[in-house]
Design brief:
The complex is a heterotrimer of chains A (about 300), B (about 240) and C (about 450). Chain A is mainly alpha-helical. Chain A has one domain. Helices cover about 75% and strands about 0% of the residues of chain A. In chain A, a hairpin with a 2-residue loop joins strand 1 and strand 2 (about 155). In chain A, helix 10 (about 235-250) packs across helix 11 and helix 10 runs parallel beside helix 12 (about 280-295). Chain B has a 6-stranded mixed sheet with strand order 6-7-8-3-9-10, with helices on both faces. Chain B is globular and about 45 Å long. By secondary structure, chain C is of the alpha/beta class. Helices cover about 35% and strands about 25% of the residues of chain C. In chain C, helix 8 (about 180-195) runs parallel beside helix 9 (about 215-225). Chain C is globular. Classes of the chains: A mainly alpha (about 300), B alpha/beta (about 240), C alpha/beta (about 450). The structure holds adenosine-5'-triphosphate (ATP) and magnesium ion.
Chain lengths: ~300, ~240, ~450
C-alpha cells in the first residue's frame, strides 16, 4: 500500500516544474525507501538471530498502524503517548509470536520455520481483519497537513515525520548493536551461535529480544506512515515483500546493507513509477532485485556467512 | 572437581562416546588425547552443555550438571575454548573479550582488572584491541579465544586443540601461557592432537579410542607409551599389530 | 610421581571414581586387543559399556591359570610383541606352559610397588639387602633385587651358598635387611643360634618375608632372634609381581596396591562375590599393559578389610593368606600343582597312572617333599638296580619339571591306601609319623 503515498503526490503532478518533479520523486523515494529500510532492518535482525526469514514482518508494520489507530481513535491518547505505547505493544506481540511459534519448533529445519512465519502472517492478518474490519481506516497526521513547499516541491509534513522517525529507528538500532552488551551479544550470536553459547549468552533470550526489537521498529514505521497511506488489515503484505526485497538487495544479514537496499529500492521505484508507468511500480522492486541478484548473488553488502552485520 | 561417569553421547544413530569416565582434580592439568574422530571434541562439547548426552553423569564440585544449559555451566565456572577458535570475527578484539565476561557485564571493575591481566599475559592483544578479531593472525586468534574464555573467570578451563595450525614458536607461547594460568590456580582439561605437547604440560592424561577410554595415567608414563605414540601418529592399532 | 605417593590416601569416593575409570579402560583395552577376552565377552554377550562401576565386575568371566596355559602362546597379549621387553614362563598343569610378557612400563610398575613398600619398611639407600630365596623363586629374587638396587641399596642376591655361609656373610657384611621366606628365615635363625649369633652380633633391622604366611609365633621368634622388624609382603608372579600387598607399620593386614589392581573375594565353589568374609582372592590388573588379566583367580584364601588403616592409608587390606582354594601346595614359597605331578608320573610311566601320595614333611625348619609311589607290577621291575635307576630318573625329572627336589620312595599299597581312601593325595607329616608309617 505504499502506492497510496504516490497517489497523493501524483495529484499535484502537473503543477510542478521539472526540478520540482525530480525532487518530488526523490522525496517520495526517500520516504518509501526509509520505510522499506526499517522493515528490511527488521528482517535482518531476526535473520541474524535465528537464520529465519520472518514473513510476518509486514504484519508487524500493519499492527503498528492498527494499534496506533486504536490508541488515537478509540482511546484518544495524545499522539506521542500513543506512538510509544504502540511500539511497546507490538514488541510484546513480537515476543509472543516468537515464544509460541518459533521456540517450540526450535529443532525444526529452517524451511519449516519460514513456513511457520508465513502461517503467523496469515493468522495475524486474519485476527486484524476480525478486530478492525476490512475497510481502511485513517489516522490523523502527527502535525497537521499543510504541505511544506521546498524548492518547488510540496511536501507533506508527515513525510518529514516518516523520515525523522525511521532515521531515529535506524540510528537507535545501530547504536544498540554497537554499544550495548546486548547488541554485541546479538552480533556475536549472529556470527557464531555456538561460541555465543560458550560465553554464557542465553541465545533464546536474545532471540526474544530480536523479535521485540524487530517488531518494535517495524511498528514505529507502521505508525508513522499510517496517516499518509491509511491503515488496513492487509497493508503489511506488500510492505513486507518490499522490505524483504530491500534486505536481500542489501545482502541478507547486513544491517547497513538493508538500509541501503531500502533506500535504493524506494528511489528507483519512485522514478520508475514516475517516468515509466505507475502500474508497474510494484514489479520494479522485484525486477531490481532480480538484476542485482544476478550480478551479485550475495547482495550489495553481503559478505557470506562470516561477516554478517 | 569434575567427575564424569559412563557418558554416552550419540549424533542420531551414531554412537560417539560409549561410556566414558574420567575426573579432574583441583589444580591439575589433564590431557585428553586420541586419534581423529575419537570423540574428544564431543566430550568437551558435552561437558560445556552444547550437547545432551544419552546417559551418564557429569558432576562439577559435587553438583550434577548434566542437564544444565551452556550459560549455567559457564556461570558455575567451566569455560570451553572450542576447537577452531570460534572467535567473533567481525567484532573487535575488545568486544570479543567483553563478551567473554558477558555473564558479569555489570562488574565493570572486575572486567577492567581481568582485561589488564589478560593484556599482560597477551600483550599482542592489547596492541590490537580495536582491530576486527577476524584480521588477527591464527596464533593471535587462539590467544584471543583463550583470553575470551578466561574473561568468564572460570575455575575449570577446557581447551580443545589450542595448537591447531600454529607455528612451533606460537605454540610454545600458547603452552607457556596455559601453564601460567594454571599456576594462578586454574584447573585445565586440554585436548590435543599434538599429544606430546599436551603431555609435557599436563600432570595426568587419558587416551580416548573410538569413544572409549583405553588408557590413563601420569603424563610422564603416557608420553612413552607405545599406544600413545601410535595414537599420536594417528595409526590404527590394527595396522601396527600385524605380527 | 606425585599422584602415586598420595594415591594410597584417596577418599573412598575418589577410589570409586578411580576404580571405575581403571576398570573401564582395562576392559576396553582387552576387548579391543586381547583375542581371548574379545571372544569370551562376545560369547557371553557382554558389551564393555555395561561395566558402569566396580560392582559390575561380576558380569565378567574369570581367568584361571588353566586359561592362561590353554591359550598359549599369544592369545592373552594386549600389545604387539615388539612392545614387550621381558617374558616369564611358568609351569602349568596343562599341556603348555604359562607365558607372561611385560612391557617396560609393566616392569616399572612392579618395581615401583616394591619400592613403595620398601620405603614404608624404612629401607634406605644405606641399607645392605640380602636376599635368601630358593632357586625356584628366582623371579621373585630378580624383581626384588632390581627394586632394592634402584632404591640405591647394596644388594646381595641369592647365591648357591650353604646356609652357614649365608649367615657368615650376613654377619661380616653387616646385612641390615633380610628378604626371605618365613620358613627359611627360621632355618637361618636356628643356624645363627647354633653359631651363637644374635641381635648383638648381627646388624639386621628389617626382615621382609614372602612366599608364605608369616605366623604370629614365627614373627615374634624372628623379630626377637634376629633383632629386626618383620614385615610380610604378598604377591603373585603371574600378575603384579612380588609386592601386590604389603604390611604397613600399623597393621598386620596387608595393604593392596589398589591403584593397580581391583581385588575381589569370591566363594570358590559358587563363584559368587563375598563382601565380608573369607574366600578366594580374585584380582583384575588394571594398569598392566602386556597381559592385563580380568578377574584372575589367585587361589589364595583371604578376606578383604575396607576401612581406613591407622596409618591413614585408605587402600583395602587383606588378611594373611589362610590357605589355598585349589590343588596348589605352597612349599617353601613355591607353588606346586598336584595335577602337574600326576601328569609327570603318567608321562613317566608311559600312560599308566600309579597310585601315589605327595608327602610334605617338616624337617628342621624347611619343608621337604617326598613322593610315595605304591609298588605296582605295572611299573616296577623285579631287579633292584633297575628300580634304583627308575627312582633316580624320576627324581631328576621331578626337579626339572617342578623346580624343587623331591625324594621318591616306593611304598606298599597299603601304606598310602588310608589316605587315598579319604581322597587325600597331599599330606603334611612330621618325622615321627613318617617313621611309624614306613616301618
Ligand atoms: N554433528 C555431528 N553429526 C554427526 N556426526 C558427528 C558430528 N560431530 C562429530 N561427529 C562424529 O563423531 C565422531 C567424533 O567426533 P569428534 O569431533 O568428537 O572427534 P575428535 O576426537 O574431536 O576428532 P578430531 O581430532 O578430528 O578433532 C566422528 O566420527 C565424527 O564424524
Ligand atoms: Mg576435535
Amino acid at each position: 500500500m505504499g502506492g497510496g503515498l504516490l497517489a497523493l503526490i501524483n495529484l499535484r503532478r502537473e503543477k510542478i516544474a521539472l526540478m520540482g518533479q525530480i525532487l518530488q520523486f526523490l522525496f517520495s523515494g526517500l520516504t518509501n525507501g526509509a520505510v522499506y529500510a526499517v522493515i528490511a532492518l527488521g528482517f535482518t535482525i531476526i535473520y541474524n538471530a535465528t537464520d529465519v526469514i520472518n514473513f510476518a514482518q509486514g504484519e508487524f508494520v500493519m499492527l503498528g498502524a492498527m494499534v496506533m489507530y486504536t490508541f488515537v481513535h478509540f482511546l484518544s491518547w495524545p499522539i506521542p503517548v500513543a506512538f510509544f505505547a504502540t511500539i511497546i505493544c507490538v514488541s510484546v506481540i513480537g515476543i509472543l509470536v516468537e515464544f509460541f511459534t518459533i521456540r517450540p519448533a526450535k529443532n525444526a529445519d529452517i524451511i519449516s520455520l519460514i513456513i511457520i512465519t508465513i502461517g503467523v502472517s496469515i493468522f495475524l492478518r486474519g485476527v486484524a481483519m476480525m478486530i478492525w474490519g476490512k475497510d481502511p481506516v485513517a489516522i490523523p497526521p502527527f502535525t497537521g497537513s499543510t504541505p511544506i513547499v521546498f524548492m518547488g516541491a510540496a511536501i507533506d509534513p508527515q513525510i518529514i515525520w516518516v523520515l525523522v522517525i525511521t532515521l531515529i529507528a535506524m540510528i537507535f538500532t545501530q547504536w544498540f548493536f554497537k554499544y550495548t552488551i546486548w547488541g554485541k551479544a546479538m552480533r556475536a550470536c549472529a556470527v557464531n551461535k555456538k561460541a555465543a553459547k560458550l560465553v554464557g549468552i542465553k541465545v533464546e533470550r536474545l532471540v526474544s529480544l530480536s523479535f521485540a526489537l524487530s517488531a518494535g521498529i517495524s511498528a514505529a514505521a507502521g505508525a508513522v506512515i499510517a496517516p499518509i497511506t491509511f491503515a488496513s488489515y492487509d497493508m503489511g503484505t506488500m510492505l513486507g515483500l518490499k522490505g524483504f526485497c530491500a534486505a536481500v538487495l542489501g545482502g541478507l544479514g547486513s544491517g547497513v546493507g538493508s538500509i541501503l537496499g531500502g533506500f535504493i529500492l524506494g528511489i528507483l521505484e519512485a522514478f520508475g513509477a514516475g517516468y515509466i508507468s505507475s502500474s508497474y511500480k510494484d514489479a520494479f522492486a522485484f525486477l531490481i532485485l532480480l538484476i542485482v541478484l544476478f550480478l551479485k548473488p550475495q547482495g550489495l553488502l553481503g559478505q557470506g556467512e562470516v561477516d554478517k552485520l | 572437581m569434575l567427575s564424569i561417569q559412563n557418558l554416552h553421547v550419540s549424533y542420531g544413530p551414531i554412537k560417539v562416546l560409549k561410556g566414558v569416565s574420567l575426573h579432574i582434580d583441583q589444580g591439575e592439568i589433564v590431557a585428553l588425547i586420541g586419534a581423529n574422530g575419537a570423540g574428544k571434541t564431543t566430550l568437551m562439547s558435552t561437558i560445556s552443555g552444547l550437547l545432551r548426552p544419552q546417559s551418564g553423569e557429569i558432576k562439577f564440585e559435587g553438583q550434577d550438571i548434566i542437564k544444565f544449559p551452556p550459560d549455567k555451566i559457564v556461570k558455575l565456572g567451566i569455560s570451553l575454548v572450542p576447537e577452531g577458535r570460534q572467535i567473533f570475527a567481525p567484532l573487535t578484539v575488545l568486544e570479543n573479550l567483553e563478551l567473554g565476561a558477558y555473564l558479569r557485564s555489570k562488574d565493570k571493575k572486575g572486567i577492567k582488572e581481568d582485561l589488564d591481566k589478560i593484556f599482560s599475559i597477551f600483550p599482542k592483544l592489547k596492541e590490537r584491541k580495536n582491530q576486527q578479531a577476524g584480521t588477527l593472525s591464527g596464533g593471535e586468534q587462539q590467544m584471543l579465544a583463550i583470553a575470551r574464555a578466561f574473561m568468564a573467570r572460570p575455575r575449570l578451563l577446557l581447551l580443545d586443540e589450542p595448537s591447531l595450525g600454529l607455528a612451533p614458536m606460537v605454540l610454545e607461547l600458547i603452552m607457556d601461557s596455559i601453564l601460567e594460568l594454571n599456576k594462578e590456580g586454574l584447573t585445565i582439561l586440554i585436548v590435543e592432537q599434538n599429544a606430546i605437547k599436551a603431555l609435557e604440560i599436563s600432570t595426568r592424561g587419558y587416551v580416548l579410542e573410538t569413544g572409549r577410554i583405553i588408557l590413563q595415567g601420569s603424563s610422564n608414563e603416557l608420553k612413552e607409551d607405545p599406544d600413545v605414540i601410535r595414537a599420536y601418529l594417528g595409526k590404527d592399532y590394527e595396522e601396527i599389530t600385524e605380527r | 610421581m606425585v599422584t602415586e605417593s598420595r594415591i594410597e590416601f584417596l577418599s573412598p569416593d575418589a577410589w570409586g571414581q578411580w576404580h571405575t575409570e581403571l576398570l573401564q579402560s582395562v576392559v576396553n583395552r582387552v576387548y579391543t586387543r586381547v583375542p581371548f577376552y574379545k571372544n569370551l565377552l562376545d560369547k557371553e554377550g557382554i558389551d564393555p559399556s555395561q561395566i558402569t562401576n566396580v560392582e559390575m565386575l561380576k558380569l565378567l568371566p574369570f581367568t584361571t591359570r588353566e586359561d592362561l596355559a590353554n591359550h598359549y602362546p599369544y592369545d592373552f597379549f594386549a600389545v604387539p610383541l615388539r612392545d614387550i621387553v621381558r617374558i616369564h614362563t611358568f609351569k602349568s598343569s596343562q599341556l603348555s606352559p604359562i607365558v607372561i610378557g611385560y612391557t617396560k612400563r609393566d616392569l616399572e610398575i612392579r618395581r615401583f610397588l616394591a619400592i613403595r613398600a620398601f620405603n614404608v619398611f624404612g629401607v634406605r639407600p644405606e641399607d645392605i639387602v640380602q636376599i635368601c630365596l630358593d632357586p625356584g623363586m628366582s623371579m621373585w629374587s630378580l624383581e626384588l633385587k632390581e627394586a632394592a638396587e634402584s632404591l640405591g641399596a647394596l644388594v646381595i642376591p641369592p647365591d648357591p651358598l650353604r646356609a652357614k655361609d649365608r649367615i657368615k656373610v650376613m654377619r661380616d657384611f653387616k646385612t641390615t635387611v633380610l628378604i626371605t621366606t618365613p620358613s627359611y628365615g627360621l632355618y637361618l635363625l636356628s643356624i645363627a643360634r647354633e653359631k651363637g649369633l644374635g641381635p648383638r652380633e648381627l646388624s639386621l633391622r628389617v626382615g621382609i618375608f614372602i612366599g608364605e604366611t608369616l605366623k604370629d609365633k614365627d614373627r615374634k621368634e624372628l623379630e626377637k632372634g634376629f633383632g629386626l622388624r618383620a614385615f610380610s609382603i604378598y604377591g603373585i608372579m603371574e600378575a603384579m609381581g612380588p609386592v601386590m600387598a604389603y604390611e604397613c607399620r600399623d597393621s598386620k593386614r596387608l595393604h593392596l596396591a589398589l591403584d593397580h589392581v581391583i581385588p575381589e573375594v569370591i566363594d570358590p565353589k559358587t563363584l559368587e562375590p563375598i563382601f565380608n568374609g573369607v574366600g578366594e582372592l580374585v584380582i583384575t590388573t588394571a594398569t598392566t599393559k602386556a597381559n592385563p588379566l580380568i578377574r584372575f583367580r589367585t587361589g589364595d584364601l583371604t578376606k578383604i578389610t575396607y576401612n581406613v588403616c591407622e596409618c591413614g592409608r585408605t587402600t583395602w587390606r587383606i588378611d594373611p593368606i589362610k590357605g589355598r582354594s585349589d590343588q596348589l601346595v605352597n612349599v617353601r614359597g613355591i607353588k606346586i600343582d598336584v595335577g602337574l605331578i600326576r601328569r609327570l608320573l603318567t608321562e613317566y610311566c608311559e600312560g599308566y597312572e600309579p597310585k601315589f601320595l605327595f608327602v610334605i614333611r617338616k624337617k628342621e625348619f624347611l619343608e621337604q617333599i617326598e613322593l610315595w609311589i605304591a609298588m605296582d607290577p605295572q611299573i616296577f621291575s623285579a631287579s633292584l638296580p633297575e628300580l634304583h635307576l627308575w627312582i633316580r630318573n624320576l627324581e631328576t625329572k621331578f626337579k626339572d619339571y617342578i623346580g624343587i627336589s623331591c625324594i621318591v620312595r616306593p611304598v606298599e599299597k597299603r601304606t598310602i591306601a588310608p589316605f587315598l581312601d579319604r581322597n587325600k593325595d597331599i599330606v603334611y607329616l612330621d618325622n615321627n609319623e613318617i617313621n611309624s608309617l614306613l616301618l
